[in-house]
Amino acid sequence: MPETAATAPIAGPFRSSIMQVEPQWIDYNGHLNMAYYNVMFDRAIDEFWLELGMGPAYMKERGGSSFTAECHVRYLREIHLGDPVQILVWLLEADDKRLHTFEEMRHGAEGWLSATSENMSLHMDMNARRVAPLPPDIQQRIAGIARAHSALVRPEGIGRSVAMPAKR
Questions:
Q1: In this structure, what are the phi and psi dihedrals at residue 19, rounded to the nearest 5 degrees?
Q2: Helices marked H in the chain
Q3: How far is residue 133's CA from residue 26's CA, in Å, rounded to a whole number?
Q4: Crossing angle (nearest 10°) for helices 34-52 and 136-150
Q5: Secondary structure E strands in 27-128
Q6: Which CA distances in Å does 126 have to 38, 54, 130, 141, 149?
Q7: Which residues, at least 6 apart from 43, have a Cβ–Cβ distance to it below 8 Å?
Q8: pLDDT tens digits, 98-156
Q9: CA–CA distance, 111 with 105 (Å, rounded to integer)
Q10: Domains in the chain, CATH or no CATH each
């Protein structure tokens, strides 16, 4: 069987298309507003879901989708109007209903790290509006990508929590 986007192995983290910061996303501090970091992370996850076979056609034809259950964003370096952005996505773990991902937002030309986002997504049966197991073919695709990603160097910041620094 010829390889397609749905069957090709992934050698590294998924790389989104290059995105541009939109003028209305810049806040009064002169940088990308925190809400729009999430918009850009979400757009990258939508591209990644297409690779998994879970895009808009999947919802329309099979009644499944995903909801984000938890998200932790770290803002590390400002992004400004005109900066190209690319998101790298690691699939850290998955089971029959959940996908644990980690994303890095990088400057699309210079490569420096701007932000990270760690997420837990739930597979949903959109007819019942409940968490439900993924279909076996999608589970198989996800398992293959999770195995490939488990061999990659893990990015710094996975599992971080929000807390005040320890007092000395």
A1: -110, 155
A2: 34-52, 56-62, 136-150
A3: 39
A4: 110
A5: 64-75, 84-94, 98-107, 113-125
A6: 23, 13, 7, 21, 28
A7: 16, 19, 87
A8: 999 999 999 999 999 999 999 999 999 999 999 999 999 999 999 999 999 999 999 99
A9: 9
A10: 14-150 (3.10.129.10)
